[in-house]
Task: structure prediction
Amino acid sequence: NAGVTQTPKFQVLKTGQSMTLQCAQDMNHEYMSWYRQDPGMGLRLIHYSVGAGITDQGEVPNGYNVSRSTTEDFPLRLLSAAPSQTSVYFCASSFPGNYGYTFGSGTRLTVV
Amino acid sequence: AQTVTQSQPEMSVQEAETVTLSCTYDTSESDYYLFWYKQPPSRQMILVIRQEAYKQQNATENRFSVNFQKAAKSFSLKISDSQLGDAAMYFCACGDNNDMRFGAGTRLTVKP
Result:
């Protein structure tokens, strides 16, 4: 049982480049979310999904796109990377209700 | 959406002593859930304890317990018999049936 798998673990991008952060879970969780973690700011919600075909914006959605074509996968796309998107990105999943999220191990992204 | 405030950026405790981390939250939802997560230097997010808002009884998990004051929208974490391995960032979170929001975190140092 792999849990939540994020790839890659580290990435360096040049300003203006695009890329996709991958997230997959094998627990049949309905809920999936993307967070970014910056020093002193905790985890901020980027986008979330309550099921396949359903996505919604969180606190800081600008510059990011998501889609949820299957229950298992929830990729995060950076359309045109900016230095302000340098951060650690976490994907998380959960069943609805009081179960708490299971987190992936994170992706450290640096935009130069 | 929820907002979560952790007013203590850093806390310190002597090994074997007790420490309390503070958290306040705000939400317009009547059905919501509260969590404490631990993030050690490995960066992995670990669920410590969870509480359903409709339950009056405070949750307890071994050395970890909460003081949930619903009217005051307060959800503090008490760590008893602190151990060196408890040193980490601790995040308070509040979720409803759509998404979960985090506080900025408290860095806990445990002194031997």
